[in-house]
What we know:
Largest interface: A-B, 76 and 94 residues
CATH architecture of chain A: 3-Layer(aba) Sandwich
Distance between the termini of chain B: 80 Å
Number of domains of chain A: 1
CATH topology of the largest domain in chain B: Rossmann fold
Low-confidence stretches of chain B: 1-14
Shape of chain A: globular
Helix content of chain A: 25-40%
Strand content of chain A: 15-25%
CATH topology of chain A: Rossmann fold
Strand order of the largest sheet of chain B: 1-10-7-4-2-3
CATH class of the largest domain in chain B: Alpha Beta
CATH class of chain A: Alpha Beta
Number of strands of chain A: 11
Radius of gyration of chain A: 20 Å
Helix content of chain B: 40-55%
Mean pLDDT of chain B: 92
Mean pLDDT of chain A: 95
Number of helices of chain A: 6
Low-confidence stretches of chain A: none
CATH architecture of the largest domain in chain B: 3-Layer(aba) Sandwich
Oligomer: heterodimer
Order of helices and strands of chain A: HHHEHEEEEHEEHEEEE
Amino acid sequence: MTARDEILGKVREGLPPFTPLPDVRAAAHSFANPAVNQAGRFIEAARASGARVTESTRDDLASLIPELYPDARAVLSSSPSVAGTMVFSEDPHALGDTDLFVCEATLGVAENGAVWIPASRVRHRAALFLAANVAILVERYVLVHDLHAAYAAIDVAVDGFGVFVAGPSKTADIEQALVIGAHGPKSLSIILLT
Amino acid sequence: MTTPATRRLPVVEGAGPIDHAAAAALFIADEDRADWHDRALWYVRAKRDVAAAAVPEWEALRDLASAIKEHTLSRLDDYLIQFEAHATANGARVHWARDAEEHNQIVLDILVGRGARRLVKSKSMLTEECGLNPYLESHGIEVVDTDLGERIVQLRHEPPSHIVMPAIHLKKEEVGDTFHEHLGTAAGLSDPVELTAAARAHLRDRFLAADAALSGVNFAVAESGAIVVCTNEGNADLGTALAPVHVASLGIEKVIPRHDDLAVFLRLLARSATGQTLTVYTSHMLAPREGQELHIVLVDNGRTVQLARKEFWRSLKCIRCGACINTCPVYRRSGGHSYGSTVPGPIGSVLTPGIDLERYAALPFASTLCGSCTAVCPVKVDLDGQLYAWRQHVTAAGYLSASKVAVIKTSAQVLGRPWLFRALGAVGRSALRILPARLTRMGAGVWARSRDLPHVPPRSFHAWYRANRVRTRQP
């Protein structure tokens, strides 16, 4: 017998009594939704996660990015609104020296300040984690209240990869001391577009 | 091939029963360190409380999470088959492993088949449980744990002492010494920021040079074949986004039905673990990148046995947040290594005896049954109830220590005979007043080693109640 059949057979022999699957969407509708000032909650939560939050218009991005990152030489961008100085190479290993990576999120979550980035918006998913600094653009109108609303709005299966990002990479593995910039970016900017 | 009855965790081989109390005694012998450890864990527990209190629907979320997991386990065969079908359609290769040995063999075969010599790993308690690292190393694979805490303990040749914070037992000076020895940092350097920067540079090279990346899995979604991996450091993503081969090791209990269920679990997970609202990266991996291979290894290793146990199957609801560990008064004062189990603390003491009851017979007793674990568990595992149930099994199997047997027998005789209880109570009250403290503490045994005996009342509650009850009836 294959391992698969043996394991599934043992699972079937040991199944606990059937219990129904709850309706999560219905339950989530009953949760309080402080609809007032979604952007305010989003900004507060993103800042709490260690992100820098700026508000801008698309037209002002060309001047805003150099202002926020005066020292960034190697800039990689997958946003049509921001010009990069680097091109996307075939091999993601070549992106190791990126000073700044700019990309666009398709959704933001007010309860935790996270933004959703599907693979199609970043070309190489490695860019999100290799770059020293990351700036993510998110339209104000795509903010939702909580993760329930987020999963109702996104299609996880449409790309081969998608990620919620909430803040710059961090660790507290040495004596619980919070250190920003573990393996991934040392800083994260969220630019809220109005 | 071993039979299920003799199958053992690799850490178990060649060693006798775990003596948790003896290991804990060594840990608390250094009182300053024990106090420091206690405070560090309680700090995390307090952050969890703040995060939980900020969500008005917290209790509703716990009920939902528990119900989703119980439903999934009651139809686990269906969901595993669904997950496999979708993951395969996405371009992943799905493997099945009955036990640790088979899991390790599958991973090695994948690596050898691709000529991979350098493996970067992100956190996976399952591979710890399977003893994967030493197995691969014995076959010439360079294995680098990339989670900072895991890298620290790997360099020190120690197991993790906590499932979320693997190096929580170490002080920064000790990390500094380890990095000085292995990474060439300056002697005496103990600043967490500088030590983290050194580890980042050291590991960045390993990420870029890796032939393969292995990750654990937090959730596997049946409706899409997605595997979801949560990290703060970004190490799982950095590894899997660069290496040409991604191996994901997955316990069969990690499958959930729908993406909508992720919302429930993700809202609970980070808040329960560290007090964050969400981990920094919550990655949903469905398909391999172009040119990459994605292998998913589904592992049983005793989980189907636990599923079939009427008293203990609910322990498989666990989402590995570590909240029960952080809050446990015994864990906080005995340290993770004292359990001798991959997963320490209350949940480990429920899971591990199911793998080897004789070796882990002491663990269900490494608890005061205070129930704090059950109160914080985001998926409502009745941990203290299961610890209590394991005690019955340990006793029935004859694995109880002789001293515990003697205490329990004596207690049963005394408590079952009211006249004897009253007589001994009277003797005790006089003895404790008259005899020197040194002698009475000796009589109280290990209990009094680090505790003061209580003040002795002049008479028993029974006597007090009889006197007072009569008076209140009179008016």
